[in-house]
Amino acid sequence: MEAEVALGIDPCSDDKELKKQLLRKYSGCLGNLRKELCKKRKKDKLPKEARQKLLSWWELHYRWPYPSEMEKIALAESTGLEQKQINNWFINQRKRHWKPSEEMQFAVMDGFHPAPPNAAAFYVDARLVGATPAMFYARPDHGAHHGLWHN
């Protein structure tokens, strides 16, 4: 009771009046608290169109879903997302949904990278001239023979 009096609240008032008194006294604090909580709240999912574009890339490159820096920039531009969001999406997607084949695990341990160092540039250029990404990411030992893989 002493606390109520100290706060300037009439202990004999009913609940509605108490609510009004509290709102008058603390509405500024509540508004600031609400704003702060909204800032800290985790943002919602990525936009549907952006997720679909990322999933399309994922499906085309499932064997080795590690986009190059140039591909990440292109994906960020085409989806309207920040590059950090692109990076986080791929990290989460690989962790949750990708299991590298045994062959790929051994290749990584041997220091093999499935695409030539300049493949990202080929891929970006290929998109501009209409070539398919599969032309640049298919490996000859996986059933598709393309000149890019032969020395």
Secondary-structure blueprint:
Blueprint: H1 2-6, H2 15-40, H3 48-60, H4 69-79, H5 83-97, H6 102-109, H7 119-129, H8 134-137
Residues in helix, %: 55-70%
The number of distinct helices, counting runs of at least 4 residues, comes to 8
The CATH architecture of the largest domain is: Orthogonal Bundle
Q: Roughly how many Å apart are the termini?
A: 88 Å
How much is the radius of gyration in Å? 28 Å
- What is the 3D shape? elongated
Task: Extract low-pLDDT stretches.
Answer: 120-132, 135-151
Number of domains: 2
Number of strands: 0
Sequence of secondary-structure elements: HHHHHHHH
Give the CATH superfamily of the largest domain: Homeodomain-like
Question: What is the CATH T-level topology of the largest domain?
Answer: Arc Repressor Mutant, subunit A
Q: Structural class per helix/strand content?
A: mainly alpha
Largest beta-sheet details: none
Mean pLDDT: 74
CATH class of the largest domain: Mainly Alpha
